[in-house]
Amino acid sequence: MNVETHVAAAMEGISAAARLLADGGLVALPTETVYGLGADALDPVACAKIFEAKDRPLSDPLIVHIPSIDWMGRLAVASEPARLLAEHFWPGPLTLVLPRREIVPDLVTAGQETVAVRMSSHPVFQAVLEAFGKPVAAPSANRFGRISPTCAADVLAELGGRIPLVLDGGPCAHGIESTIVLVDGDGLHILRNGPVTEEELAAFAPVHGSVAGISAPGGLLSHYAPRTPMRIGEAVPKPNFGFLSWQCTGDGFARVEHLSKTQDLREAAANLYGAMRRLDEAGLDGIIAEPVPETGLGAAIMERLRKASAR
Ligand code: TXA
Ligand code: MG
Question: Are residues 93 and 199 in the same domain?
Answer without folding.
Answer: yes
